[in-house]
From TrEMBL:
Residues 4-158 form the TniQ domain. It comes from Tissierella simiarum. This is TnsD family transposase. InterPro entries: TniQ (IPR009492), TnsD_C (IPR032750). Residues 201-307 form the Transposon Tn7 transposition protein TnsD C-terminal domain. It comes from the Bacteria.
């Protein structure tokens, strides 16, 4: 067991905590750091997710179970509530027991990349606060999410860190260096867009930081149908009024914003995301599009999720249905 570890800060990625560990323990070679943390040399650092967590957890002591690390120090919870139950279990197992090589690929394949980020992102305002409070800056998981452009706390534009996988060793766990940060605060000029982007950031953060273990793709889909029903967007024979739904969503967001979110909708495409998200098919839709859909349906994600009683009813229905 390790006698020293850099305990992750709130919502810090495990990746970032390992970067700080490497720095404070004074290792020269990242291979040593990898061996010390993972008890295995075949680990390639992954920014948002993780691998061999079972080893990491045994190594760090009972405070850090692998489930705890996944929930609090990876971006997995952002994807999790929108995945089919079996896929969730498979990906969690992957992070616990394997090298995690295919995991981005797997999440990418099933969810598709929307507003892909290449590199590490930070918020200049949060960075300043971290320096004041902790004497160092750390990698916050909220800021790494695809489709999150502004900080949820203050609407400040997130910035890309100068060093990334392309200009450093692939074994490196990058640690943010205060001297390399651009702390100039910038805002989105278009107020309407800014407001919508902040709302997306808040929603993403809420999903990341709320225990949504009981949710999965099926349950979310059933909730959608219930809300569509109350909005009169289901026909008598329970079919979705796609035309009306499309028109309402477009007028709610506007083309410009949907384009920015890489989520424009081709009305004539049978598999456009709006049709796929409302159908109970095997296809998985990116979390950012679920957020767009949820924010359109109800005030915000909290309101959407608060209707727990509906979910319990659905659970019961399923149980009875499957009995
Ligand atoms: Zn911030």
């Amino acid at each position: 067991m390790l006698t020293f570890f850099t305990d992750p800060y709130e919502s810090e990625l495990l990746y970032g905590a390992i970067g700080r560990y490497h720095y404070y323990i004074g290792n020269k070679d990242y291979k040593d750091t990898i061996r010390e943390i993972f008890v295995n040399e075949n680990v390639i650092p992954t920014l948002g997710l993780a691998s061999y967590l079972d080893n990491v957890s045994n190594n760090l002591g009972s405070k850090y179970t692998s489930n705890y690390i996944i929930k609090n120090h990876t971006i997995f919870p952002f994807y999790s509530p929108f995945l089919p139950e079996n896929r969730k279990i498979e990906l969690i197992d992957n992070m616990k027991y394997s090298d995690g090589k295919g995991i981005y690929h797997k999440i990418g394949i099933i969810a598709g990349s929307v507003c892909k980020k290449q590199g590490i992102y930070y918020c200049p305002e949060c960075a300043k606060n971290d320096i004041d409070k902790y004497g160092e800056v750390y990698i916050r998981r909220d800021h790494q999410l695809q489709g999150v452009f502004l900080c949820k706390n203050n609407g400040v534009k997130l910035k890309k860190y100068k060093i990334n996988k392309t200009n450093t060793s692939r074994l490196e766990f990058i640690k943010l260096d205060e001297k390399l940060l651009d702390l100039k605060v910038e805002y989105e000029e278009d107020e309407d867009i800014s407001e919508k982007l902040i709302s997306v950031s808040r929603c993403a953060s809420y999903i990341l930081n709320t225990n949504l273990d009981t949710f999965n793709k099926d349950i979310i889909n059933k909730k959608y149908r219930q809300i569509l029903h109350t909005k009169n967007l289901l026909s008598i024979n329970n079919r979705i009024r796609q035309e009306e739904l499309y028109d309402e969503l477009i007028s709610f967001y506007g083309d410009k914003f949907l384009e920015l979110m890489e989520s424009s909708i081709d009305k004539n495409d049978e598999y456009n995301w709006l049709k796929v998200i409302t159908r109970n098919s095997n296809r998985v839709v990116h979390p950012i599009r679920h957020i767009l859909f949820i924010n359109f349906l109800v005030e915000n994600i909290e309101v959407f999720l608060r209707q727990r009683n509906l979910i319990i009813l659905i659970h019961l229905e399923n149980l009875l249905g499957h009995a």
